[in-house]
Amino acid sequence: xxxxxxxxxxxxxxxxxxxxxxxxxxxxxxxxxxxxxxxxxxxxxxxxxxxxxxxxxxxxxxxxxxxxxxxxxxxxxxxxxxxxxxxxxxxxxxxxxxxxxxxxxxxxxxxxxxxxxxxxxxxxxxxxxxxxxxxxxxxxxxxxxxxxxxxxxxxxxxxxxxxxxxxxxxxxxxxxxxxxxxxxxxxxxxxxxxxxxxxxxxxxxxxxxxxxxxxxxxxxxxxxxxxxxxxxxxxxxxxxxxxxxxxxxxxxxxxxxxxxxxxxxxxxxxxxxxxxxxxxxxxxxxxxxxxxxxxxxxxxxxxxxxxxxxxxxxxxxxxxxxxxxxxxxxxxxxxxxxxxxxxxxxxxxxxxxxxxxxxxxxxxxxxxxxxxxxxxxxxxxxxxxxxxxxxxxxxxxxxxxxxxxxxxxx
Amino acid sequence: xxxxxxxxxxxxxxxxxxxxxxxxxxxxxxxxxxxxxxxxxxxxxxxxxxxxxxxxxxxxxxxxxxxxxxxxxxxxxxxxxxxxxxxxxxxxxxxxxxxxxxxxxxxxxxxxxxxxxxxxxxxxxxxxxxxxxxxxxxxxxxxxxxxxxxxxxxxxxxxxxxxxxxxxxxxxxxxxxxxxxxxxxxxxxxxxxxxxxxxxxxxxxxxxxxxxxxxxxxxxxxxxxxxxxxxxxxxxxxxxxxxxxxxxxxxxxxx
Lengths: 410, 255
Hints:
Largest sheet of chain B: none
Radius of gyration of chain A: 25 Å
CATH class of the domain at 1-225 in chain A: Mainly Beta
Number of helices of chain B: 13
Number of helices of chain A: 4
Oligomer: heterodimer
Helix content of chain B: over 70%
């Protein structure tokens, strides 16, 4: 990873020594396509402040396309604006706007196809259908771009950053809003998504399928239609991410479906309808994570096995854990639960009485959502107390035998 | 009318029960806010007090007060004052003092620690529940001649609304779980002021959980401006209708 970053940086330095071709301004060429045709590998194409209608200009050489004063590349609501292919191109400082919409293909403002060692950084994308669409590419970087889509319906709005069949991609420091999915991965491996902010998207902030060995660190996902969804992948690392305010009948902070051998550490879930929803998830470690003010902190369905929740803080969630069966193949030892009422006689910071995070009422709600109406009524409190004294309906194996007395410093 | 209500008010203040009630509420809410690091959790505990203790105290106090001031009422009836006016003054005096006690006891801590929309909603529902249970108490006391029977009926009334009703609702939900019950349950909650107040407050507190599943139906309804208006109107109706029935009964009653 570091190597090819270094290589691409070196390439950029090299490019500065090479020739510069100017488009726009007083002396520059009148069209971007004309400028591109004149460049040789190693050159820089400098686009001055101005506005151009561009219908699919193709960058297929190792050149730097640099904008000065945010030149606007306009897609006339019809076209793909720019296509990058080949090896080593750099796209920087451009403002892409009004790319075309198509119901037949995924039409982006910037297309990266069959490319490698490409760097796309510091660009703006507004009123685009798809922002960046990368396919069959590897070893490329998408950094510090902003994406603002047009919020229409799920069918007529594209994704901010869409990667299909890629590897070794670095997605760093981007902001995506108003799209269908902020960041979308399909068949993407060995890639890193970090320091991005994805918010107010119609569907998911981040969505990935069939993408193994990827890592997602220090991203913020908030106010998305349905939160973050990750499906059918393995060996995924999710660390130091924030999942906030994902509200709605089908919204999750993080939806895990058929995920295995992954690590979810040092994250924060706040005010989501469901913090983490797990279905068919195996051997996932969830640790050092804060769950605060969620409807359900975690819904772990009975189809999950070998998952380990440890060193998490559960604060003011309406329900801490919910499940849909009595079979429990996961462990929940060593967390802090604010609903814990036990004592600690030997003062080792660990409660002496086990804690059952699933209440009878959460089982009732699971069985019939209508009973949510009775939340916080005295009757429900009474039922929960009775169940705690003599457990009968709640899964007895779903237990924290080592609950912490005080919140864990995260 | 207000002159009479003033005397009722003085009488209530002299008995010191309301002062003790204020002090109790103040102590409990203050200590809740101080003990819980999370003010959201303190509000949840306060919610339980408002849904259970406030109606209980209000209904018992109003009933006992009515029977205790029976002689005063009889004296007033010998004067040229209408019966409606006498009962209304009694009601205004009782409900007013209890609401004032609630607003002082819970209102001050809430204003200090949680001066948010949630806190205001808490104060609103608490006051409404006080007023509603007072009118229920008046209806019960006007109907029952004996004091013991009246207090028993008032207690039963509280027991039904605060505890029993939810159990019945739960039973109903599970018995008819195969049917779409959203609208029915919505209607059923309106038949219990304590339930309605609880749901109204829950929408402020547990908003993320309620956004899920059928919760969305309630959120859409109760969370909207119309829902707010609906809640207020129904709660007001719960205060007015029993009072009106009590007055009607009192006017014709052979004392």
